[in-house]
């Protein structure tokens, strides 16, 4: 054996002793690794140390995240999976089931019904599969979106109330403001020319300043920004369709016509927004 190989094997042996301490503690027995004598011994030990060290860290992290894993039970399962090749399919199913349970533990799930549907889909039992995979995925996504919105409302719901209060105060202070059926509020600062107004599919050029209801500016363009009508938030699209060339307005856009539950730049979810908008020009898209 070359001297370099001996050095490498010595390092692996030392690392193995440290890594296998974890396994020894886990199984309530002392494991004393033997010094490797062949390249196969070294490779076996290297893989054991690498995998054991990685999982030692994973178990520590899991414990820190309040999801402790019993190290002894983990090792026994690992050992069984490594040695009993006849149970490969079963063990893959077991760990997949555990992973799924962890991923849906915060949802209200009837596990008996879940397993019945899982079995029907797994064995292509068309009689008992009551959803297509596409419909199932759509339902799961919609449910996740609703859950996320509920969580966001719990955290940022105050913005909805603040927006409503601001709109009521704004309308009271500005008798010349108008309100559309959707809830968009606006008042004309400077009149435009002509009778034509932008339509769907056209390109508009505008100057604008955007602020939150407490006056914080989050966006501004004084040179004139061009974009297709319909490529912006609903409140903007509706406002621009009501404007003439050269017209300048101040509009208050309720959260449901703005970004809703999304957080954008300095804008918190469910924020009502205020914009000063001047329509410089509009034309058909090329």
TrEMBL record:
The keyword Mitochondrion does not apply. PROSITE patterns: FKBP_PPIASE (PS50059), PROKAR_LIPOPROTEIN (PS51257). Residues 1-26 form the signal peptide. GO terms for biological process: protein folding. SUPFAM superfamilies: FKBP-like. It is an enzyme of class 5 (isomerase). Keywords: Isomerase, Rotamase, Signal. It catalyses: [protein]-peptidylproline (omega=180) = [protein]-peptidylproline (omega=0). InterPro entries: PPIase_dom_sf, PPIase_FKBP_dom, PPIase_FKBP_N, PPIase_FKBP_N_sf. Its EC number is 5.2.1.8. It holds the Pfam family FKBP_C. It comes from the Bacteria. Residues 201-283 form the PPIase FKBP-type domain. One of its GO terms (molecular function) is peptidyl-prolyl cis-trans isomerase activity. Belongs to the FKBP-type PPIase family. PANTHER family: 39 KDA FK506-BINDING NUCLEAR PROTEIN, FKBP-TYPE PEPTIDYL-PROLYL CIS-TRANS ISOMERASE FKPA. This is Peptidyl-prolyl cis-trans isomerase. The lineage of its organism: Bacteria, Pseudomonadati, Bacteroidota, Bacteroidia, Bacteroidales.
